[in-house]
From TrEMBL:
Domain AAA, residue spans: 4-161
Organism phylogeny: Bacteria, Pseudomonadati, Pseudomonadota, Gammaproteobacteria, Vibrionales
InterPro entries tied to this protein: AAA_dom, DNA_Partitioning_ATPase, P-loop_NTPase
Pfam families in the cross-refs: AAA_31
Protein name: Chromosome (Plasmid) partitioning protein ParA
């Protein structure tokens, strides 16, 4: 399983669009793809027709688990309307994660641990990152094998890339 984070500290540079496009291309090649929406705005979840307020569980729930293993993580995963693509959706409650979790030891490795438990279930994991550096971004980067930084060729977008 290869884990990619699509990250940039600036919003509106195409992180979600890039994530969806890559997932579609991988799916067409019969690769099993897990999408992880780490942005409290839930753009990726919304793009895939999920109503974040009506979901039974979200990525926020991962950080509430006392034990992280395949059995505890699987209920957070939802199938999408697309072949070979599943998602762990986001919820607005992710915006409170930094405050709720504080500086607890090991907080930056929770997502990595969860994804490791799913290693036999997926070929690729694509993490759509939030535009801020916090617990979610740290988790995404720590869990990743590779990082893709989409940028627009304009001054302010380049500023987010260099931050």
């Amino acid at each position: 399983m290869i884990v990619w984070s699509i990250a940039n500290q600036k919003g509106g540079v195409g992180k979600t669009t890039t994530t969806v496009t890559l997932a579609g291309l991988l799916s067409e090649r019969n690769k099993r793809v897990l999408l992880v929406d780490t942005d409290p705005h839930a753009s990726l979840s919304t793009y895939l027709n999920f109503d974040a307020d009506a979901l039974p569980a979200s990525l926020f729930d991962l950080f509430q688990l006392t034990t992280i293993n395949r059995e505890s993580v699987r209920p957070l995963i939802l199938p999408t309307a697309f072949n070979n693509i599943d998602i762990i959706p986001a919820h607005m409650s992710l915006a409170t994660l930094d405050r709720v979790m504080g500086n607890r030891s090991g907080m930056g490795l929770i997502l990595k641990k969860a994804l490791h438990s799913l290693a036999n279930d997926y070929d690729y994991v694509l993490i759509d990152c939030p535009p801020i550096l916090g617990v979610m971004m740290v988790n995404a980067l720590a869990a990743s094998d590779r990082i893709l930084i989409p940028v627009q060729t304009e001054f302010l977008a380049m500023k987010g890339w260099s931050a």
